[in-house]
Amino acid sequence: MPRILVIEDESAISNVIKNILLDEDKDYEVDLAADGEEGLAKISENDYDLVITDIKMPKKDGVQVLVEALENNPDLPFVMISGHGDIETAVDCIKKGAFDYISKPPDLNRFLSTVRNALDKKVLITQNRELTTENKALKRKVAKQYEMVGESKALSGIREIIDKVADTDARVLITGPNGSGKELVAHQIHEKSSRNRRSLVEVNCAAIPSELIESELFGHVKGSFTGAYKDKEGKFELADGGTIFLDEVGDMSLSAQAKVLRALQEGKITRVGGDKEIKVDVRVIAATNKNLRKEIKEGRFREDLYHRLAVILIEVPGLNDRREDIENLVRHFAIQLSENSGMPVKEFSKEAIKILKEYDWTGNIRELRNVVERMLILGGNPVSKEDIENFVKK
Fold first, then answer.
1. What is the set of domains in the chain, with CATH numbers?
2. Tell me: the pLDDT tens digits for 300-311?
3. pTM of the model
4. Which partner from 141, 167, 202, 276 sits 20 to 30 angstroms from 341, CA to CA?
């Protein structure tokens, strides 16, 4: 329900304005103030969607009310009304933050239109603020999800490279075993870059059938193949101005590799079935668990594409090579999983941590996260050595 404050020292006029507003919309809630000081007091005590104020008033005039109120309520719309109006006064009010200025006696249609527009503006500002707050909260949640946890020498070295390369457009090739956290590195590079206001578009090349990978990356035009019922943007177009992360790039078909190479060389792509060249400004980060030099020798990966992608090489070690990070990772996953699921946070005993540090982590960080989740569900509090021995297969 919109709440409006009318500040007017002539009660007959303020009552007329109130009645006009209520005739326009019965849902309006209209308060009255007889002078500027009373108006400021009501603004400080209540949450208004609009203030309509006269300019010439005793104690404090409307311009003083406008300036003082906007110091604490910068988004509060003000409509100024005066019987002594001139262009200079109107311009001054607008410069000081008023939504609009209307001369007395006001034209009824213009007055009501101004009120509606001012209220619409307040709604839009509120929605934008809520959206901004939600976006910031979401970004914090995403950033926490992709946080790189640990203080090992190997991880510190990766952080140093990320800090040096992030705010460039250099292409990065991330290598390492499955589950070692290659996607975390990609997200850190993007978040620390000047492209972080645009999207990081992820493509799992291993999860897309070879006959669909080109359409997924570059889009297609209507009728280009069975099932292409309309034009579709590809991931490169969606990532324009941002970053594309080609995960498991070693599983990409040779045909798709050729098109990716052209996109990197020329900054252009062509949709499947189309002939129009589309310019794209995309930073490419790729990752693989394969030995691409071996794949090149065996004819499964293009050498020229490898050299285009591997401007910066980052090798992510497996968990067995950074065991000193395990305790921090266990604590991090225990808190993260508890927050996401509502389960209580559990401690892990020193004996339990010792066993986890000695475990052979073939599934790397992903496997450790699964174990922590299993212990939150099945283990005691604190999680004991016996819990690990009973519920973690060796």
1. 3-128 (3.40.50.2300), 151-317 (3.40.50.300), 320-391 (1.10.8.60)
2. 999 999 999 999
3. 0.66
4. 202
